[in-house]
């Protein structure tokens, strides 16, 4: 119910702003501003989206947690959605989200909040490293090394015991036998 009310208030404010700006600069001026903002926004999203993906790949390559990079990419996507929605307030919000320092600050806060919420619910987080590396304890794409001894893995930021196991698909047990 709150979401519906919030959307209704947003639409009323957006329409009011569009009417007021349209009365001030005219219909063609308003249309020009909306088209120009969409073009500039599309260019900015393309540019910032590439930068965000590069940062995400770099964090994955280094084996570092990428919560902030993922949140950053989500804010770029949100800016894209806001630019698709016709209106001046949504365009203004999208352009603010496309400013890298603003987006990074929001992304850091969102990532920290997500990590705190996740660790409060399920305890300490587990990071899987070394998948696909050559040999059981050889160097892998993320730089994990067996420097902590047998059964221990040291990646610099993650130190923990590696527990070997097997994934069992329970759905196989539920299938009728033929």
Automatic annotation (TrEMBL):
Region described as Disordered? 139-158
User: Can you quote a single GO CC term?
Assistant: membrane
Name the UniProt key words of this record, in alphabetical order.
Membrane, Transmembrane, Transmembrane helix
Q: Which is a Pfam family this sequence falls into?
A: FxsA
Q: Which residue ranges does UniProt annotate as crossing the membrane? A: 25-45, 75-99
**Top-rank taxon:** Bacteria
Cross-referenced NCBIfam families, in alphabetical order? PRK11463.1-2
Name the chain's protein. Answer: UPF0716 protein FxsA
The organism of origin for this protein: Actinomycetospora succinea
